[in-house]
Amino acid sequence: MAKPMRALALASLVLLLYITFQVFRNPPPIKEPRIVYPDMKTDPNLEETHEPPAPLHRADSSYTPNASPSSRINATILSLVRNEELDGMLQSMHDLEATWNHKFNYPWTFFNDKPFDQRFKDLTSAATNASCSYHLIPKDHWAVPAWIDQSLYTESAKLLGGKDVQYAGMVSYHQMCRWNSGMFYRHPALANTRYYWRVEPKVHFFCDVNYDVFRYMQDHNKTYGFTINLYDAPATMPTLWPETLKFLDAHPEYLKDNDSNSRAWLEDSERRPEHNKIANGYSTCHFWSNFEIADLEFWRSKAYSDYFDHLDRSGGFFYERWGDAPVHSIALGLFEDKSKIHWFRDIGYQHIPYFNCPNVPGQCSGCRTGFFTDGEDFLYKEDCRPNWFKYVGMG
Prior knowledge:
alpha/beta
């Protein structure tokens, strides 16, 4: 009996020593942000980040939900979401309401290709003091266009799948990309809306924002605001740039002059030459459009509408897997003055696996300042901000 008791006592002592070591040992070193480009030695988000320049409009009683008159302008928070994504949508709403919209109470506008159920409506409307509206996408806005050859689409999806292109065979994904590219702004619910902030399920907002971002866009004549700037998978769009060049040949009048446009950012071949080669002249750099704050008048313009219609007729939204992010970005880079495109560096944001995490003392929590990703190091090569800073700047 004595031997088992001694063995038990010894084991208890060893366990106690192990627990004590774990509690009092030095914590593991914190991984520092890794910058992989020689021309961007440090992430600019490590520098102290300030609000954009005045004028800025602060929250006051004119921004309360039922204020009349109200200081809110004609703008909305916009989300394409399905009933089954309710939990992720509530998480996104919680973050944006906590960091910004509880102060300004801009309305939420929800779109779905299926009717929203009552539970979705009840819980999302309870997540904000602002008004909410729920809209069904017209069938002719969502359906696969009549000119798409179904057998060619099926064969193309197989070829793309063989190149490991995600969602190649998911028709609804192609429909979503097409709708976000050129159909959403045609919905009657947005007919009288000027600005929108796009918000998707399962995203995070980390930093208090204490000014009306929509009025910032209006007062400073900005067309588009982004947080994250990435490379795309070139195998998804080998003919997007050639089709764009065809459009420019037919409509040279839409192209901004070289001093004003961002074409060099779109055509860069130095940093990732293989992307430019596979995409036939396009760098694949784009604004990650799951976050975008934009002026709908740009999408409604004749230049963009004609461009989208040209792309749509070519079939690339289905025969390839063109996304709304590169389509929006190419149009902005060619048809808009680069001074009207704004990096919202002060808005902390994450869509897995990428971050925009600024250094705003006392106003951010939940993200690591200066980190582009908390994933593997290879993801850093997807960062296209260095190209934007090189060709355009940090405005």
